[in-house]
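User: Can you predict the 3D structure for this chain?
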Amino acid sequence: MASRVRAVLSVILLLGVIAGLPALAAPAGAESRTVTLATHDLDPFVTTHDGVKTGFTIDLWEEITKRLGWSTTFLDANGVNGVLDAVKTGAADAGASAVSITADRVQTFDFSQPTLNAGLQILTKAGATQKSTPGLMDFLKLLFSWSMLGWLGAAFIITVIPAHITWLVERRHTDSMVSKSYFPGVLQAFGWGLGTLAAQPDDAPRHWLARCMGLLWAFVSIIFVAYYTATLTANLTVERFDAQISSPTDLFGKSVCTVANTTSTHFLSDLGISFTGARTIEDCYAGLKKGDFDATVFDAPVLQYYARHGGSGAVEIAGPIFKNEDYGIVFRPGSPLRQQVDEALLSMREDGTYDMIKAKWFGSEEGKAGG
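Assistant: Here is the predicted structure, written as structure tokens:
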């Protein structure tokens, strides 16, 4: 009888230990509760399909709440500002989904430890960042541009004038290189002028005054050809490199799109770069592919993910990450939830769970490691 009692007590004790394991694994102060989390859809952080949310932020949060023994009620917000407003007004206990930690925001909110190290980056149409070698059509297009036609018109005018002077002087010489009659005499002088302009005259004036005119015209021709060549070369160089965008300084004079009221708009405004503030990043993507914009500036992980997935082959990343910034989970000031979330995040980093979640969504190249 005593052995049966001991056996029953042992089973009860074992069940009690097993039931208490989750509490032991959770950070200190953790308790079962339902937390309202404000999010907004932004690939690859939060995506909602048929009411089911997926993404880096969702996986991260679900692992945190699993360790803390919490359940979650999601609140859909309108963009980052909607997430911040929901937390500020108390409609949500916390907010997440690529929320940047900034000096202004930490004066109003508490943030968790960084959930991802990121920054801003530039997205362009595919091929816009490549150094292109001008082809025959590019050369012909430039050759017959208004700028080049203006140069050719100037060459015609400055050749006609000395041609008439040369004909008037040279026709009186007995061994003249031109006919005494206006036609074809002036045409012969004009041909000589063009030949001099090209440094390939096939004859020379006989009259001393015409020879002096020839020397002066040869000097003018050298200067004209030098300027024309320099202009043509410069324009070809501009045609080759004008489309290149690899840093924020290349955005001046370009049509730039970003999402309104985000850290990227503040960055562009501080630099004095004009931009269009779109409602969503998808609006920027659509405008970029249609050619309405030369570039899109936004959060690097978001642009990198789109370039590898939804926009693969149509867009590409231009240049490195700039204006490094961190993402975090946002809370109201003094929220007791923040410390528990921080402890869960630290344990996830230590046991490798964080790295596994990050690799699932970003691989080893997109964004930067979160710690």
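The first strand starts at residue 33 and ends at 39. Confidence is low (pLDDT under 50) at residues 11-15, 17-29, 366-371.
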